[in-house]
Design brief:
The chain is of the alpha/beta class. About 40% of the residues lie in helices and about 20% in strands. β2, α3 (about 35-45) and β3 form a beta-alpha-beta unit. Bound molecules: adenosine monophosphate (AMP). The site of adenosine monophosphate has 17 residues, from α3 and β5.
Amino acid sequence: MIIFKKKEDLQKYLSTDEQKQQKIGFVPTMGALHAGHLSLIERARRETDVVLCSIFVNPTQFNQAEDLEKYPVQVEKDIEYLIEAGADILFLPGVEEIYPQGMKNLETYAFGYLEEIGEGKHRPGHFQGVGQVLARLLKIVDPDKMYMGQKDYQQILITRKLIELLHSRTEIVAVPIKREKDGLAMSSRNARLSQKGRKKAPAIYRSLKKIEAERATHSFPECAEEVISSLEKEGIEVEYLLLADAGTLLPETDFEAHPQVVLIAAWLDGVRLIDNVLL
Ligand code: AMP
């Protein structure tokens, strides 16, 4: 695996005649890699010639300073993991490399209602930060395909909108959520849970499965009330529980016959966890 820290070096390498003929599969990450990230890399390996990963903890997408400070960093371990996973290239830039003019007065993107619901509503500025970093990474890497996890469902829709706004040629590939054996969606943030919290956390996914099972006999508001109160009894505080059209993410009040998605964000041990299920 070749590691590049400077964008000029990476671009120079990618612009050689030999590299230009290869299809690039890009997997952007914030590091602290786990099997969820691996599933993105595996998919990219199957579908493209060169798998390029990036590790960059993007400050502009953190709406809480504490969340950024506590974000796990384990670069050495990640490098070993990526070599084992068969990644070809790692782009490991510093903050000045991505934001050479600083992080003030950055461009903004017209994501519309996607920024006013779910993650957008509860993490003000988060998706602008996602847009700012992905626009830069897309410009540097110009991948054929970019692999993203369905765990961050709303982020995939935001990225599709970004691709449209940037007139980018990159195709977005959405990869299913990788879960622990007990159902908890894998996340770099899980490492911050206490032992007790880690045992409680699968209740989040169980709640989503319960909603899925009960949708034939109950309304969504009934399901939501039950799930929120039972999670709260476990000490899990629900920030939002949203039912939406799976294609547009426009919020819906009750179950319908077309594909829908239920999205949840919840707090446990001071850690914010998200998950979703497609109906
Ligand atoms: P992150 O490092 O958390 O920014 O995630 C980098 C990419 O990995 C994003 O596209 C995530 O959606 C994806 N990802 C994170 N966790 C999982 C998971 N459990 N299953 C599948 N993809 C995931």
